[in-house]
Here is the input.
Amino acid sequence: MNDTLTRAVLADDERLMREQMRARLAEVWPELQIVAEAKNGLEAVQAVRDQRPDIVFLDIRMPGLSGVEAARQIAQLEHDDDALLPEIVFVTAYDQYAVEAFEHGAADYVLKPAERERLALTVQRLKQRLATRGTADATPGAPIQQLLHRLSAQLNPGAAPGYLKWIQASVGSSIQMIPVADVLFFISDEKYTRVQTAQLEALIRKPIKELVDELDPHLFWQIHRSTLVNINAVAAVTRDLRGRQIVSVKGHPEKLEVSRGYTGLFKGM
Here is the structure.
């Protein structure tokens, strides 16, 4: 990617921290354009919606909506199918959040106050990810949902996440309780989400963006803004004539398209 085209949003509730980060970034990446600044998570989400940046620097602890919560909303923004979600860099004064949570490369982090050498390393990683994302050379990483769930658990250690075990869904004129482990995939349209198992198809009124937070991210991966797939049900990932990744599902003939922003999930599988 051409440096002159790289755009970023900077979110931190402390003005001095934003000014310091802007100054440090100007030193290590002078071509980077800061297109918007935000004082809280809500402003950050709106800035990403308005500006469609390549990168978002998010302070983890912000009033109203934390950086982690903002990242969750950003990951669910209604982008075009060919659009890529921005790269996320979390900024934190608490190094305990920066140990295990970032090992898989779904995002990067910077400790406050931002040191020039560490920020230069982050910039190097970002340039590499931006240059290859959406391609076969994209850096593989665990789904962003997994990272955000781990961070949420670290921010709220007393609130261990309880994932859905059953789905209550409409099948014809009846309501059935479907074990989540039996679900092959979820696909949403404007009003309903289809729940597909090997034996039946059912409908629920819960959108994908809510299911993402309620399902175990180690079991269900988001591969499209409207699709979640049970990773245990993935039989193969191939490419069609247009170069798009296509997921074949065990026990079902339907093929699931992987949108550009999620192509790195299956690299090396």
